[in-house]
Amino acid sequence: MLSELESAGASSVATSLAAGGDEPVASAQAQLAGVRNQSLEPAQRALEGFRIAASTAAPSAHAQARAVDDAGTNARTAMQRGDLSPAQSHQVQQALEQLGNALVDGKLSPSLDASLRDNLYDLATADAGGPRFDGALAQMTRAAQGLEPGAATHSAPLPPPRTSSVARDDSGKALPPLCSTFDFGHGDAKTTSAQYLLALQARTASTGAIAPQDLAKSKTILFQDYGYPMAGTRLASDQLSALSASARVGSPGTADYAARVAHRDAVREHAKASLRGNLDDTNVTPDYLASMKDFAGSTPERRAARFDFYSKIEVTSRAGARAVDVTRGDRTIKVSFAPDVSGWANAAGVPTADALRKTDFAVYEKAIDAAFATPGMTGFTINGAWRPAPSDVTAMGMTPSSHNEGSLHITSWAVDINAITYADAQGQKWTYDINNAPEDGTAAYQRVPDSHPSRYETTTDRDNAVYQAFYDNFYAQKGTERELFDPWQMWADHGTYAGHPDNSPTVLSISNNDFLHHNHLHLAIKPPPSH
Question: Organism's domain of life (predicted)?
């Protein structure tokens, strides 16, 4: 756990007041004095303060330490994040403006203490709404409020009170929120959170209502710890109709052109919001109820597996890479997520944390099962998860990618994997990048004799035994149809691929799927498994 800013105003300000004396601090103070006399907007002035303060950090050979110490970049990243709610963005902006301007005005020493640097880094890299982000934001807000008397009166406003219906018993008497009466003092987080959700589901089923505090708490637990998305994967037909209508704004010369553009943009933003898992939503939505029902109907083992996966996903780089270790017995598989794993989702307004949860857990689980079944394998990197439908993207005024409307990525049942890691018999660690097919997509396909269902391979051989075993172990799993496309071959238990006549060995090349998948493994399951 990162250190906290205890009594933030006193500890950060009093202990860091300008008494530096060493050369980096003296140089920074001189630069800050120069900024002090410039006419800058408050936000720009604050960022200059953090940029200059970053120069006082002691040199480090460790990349992680350098990333944490880079106060200038972390402040800019935090203030420019596009995945925050309006309330979060306002609070981050206000706290960092106050602290950055305090640096420029000499009220805060440029030799920032470790706690403040840690919290700046968390504001820049931690998942919005997660415990690291929320803790850092609370501490930085207190630090800003402690700078001068009266500063606290300018803090971000509290969100409006929730208006969800109050839970009542059969006599109509209001029931207290379960989260205020439930005993969280025993057991680990996995045990207590499961007990709380199960008790809440039972009480909600009997009363038909849920207290606002329980809605907020249970949504957060379901999303953060158990990986349930709080919004669907597609826009509704009426939303698409509204988007289509609002797109007709007329020519720039019309009198109400500006108003039409503003209305169109507002409708598009509303559409984007409908795809986001909004934990602040005060409504008991169908997605929330479906998540509660699935949680209550799951086995304890499956609930534990979800908790161990989602609750431990950590941001590992400022660029947004993520990773989680999954341990079974004496083996650990590291599941890594590339920084651009959800680029299309982000463009559509869906944060990475939400996009990763829109891919069904069963897909991750089967990939992990295949990895554990492969001797020597230590991990794999996912570079593509859920993405919005082309029709949704087009309706929101964006240019869609080349993926098709029926892609299993859109319906939550596919991931792309671009690398695996493994150890050889001597313990040497290796990374294998999946990119061995010809770049021009001209690989010749031939049918594998006596294969069932019909299977085609390129004449380019797979040259890594560990990767081949991982691939085959995924396909060998029982209980659901599988779909794999990679640079060498394409297997499918369903759809048009399985129905191709044996005398059409070039059909896969006709669709250009071989070229589209020349640098990654597309791993999918269909239809949804029952669990």
Answer: Bacteria
